[in-house]
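Table 4 source record.
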Amino acid sequence: MAELPDLYVTSDAAVIQVREALREVIDPEIGLNVVELGLIRNIHVEEDAVEVTMILTTPFCPYGPAMVESVRKKSYEATNKNTTVEVGMEMWNPEMMEEGAGGDWGLF
């Protein structure tokens, strides 16, 4: 298993609130949420804004723009703060998934 980003082990209530709201954003091709998949790489909550860094399962994911917009909207709904979403360049691999999330795929 890959090492989890800080947002998965934080005690920051605002980050946890956003992270849990993002569990409602489902990758339509895979059927798992963006948090389970490990696509959310960073959440930074400031007084008046939220910044989310996410990656996609593939560079040419046909649902990428829609998922990015869904992440932005869910974060805004959870915090009522303007949210920006940056798409990182890190390459996704199945080891980034939360423990147990790959069981349905027979990966782990």
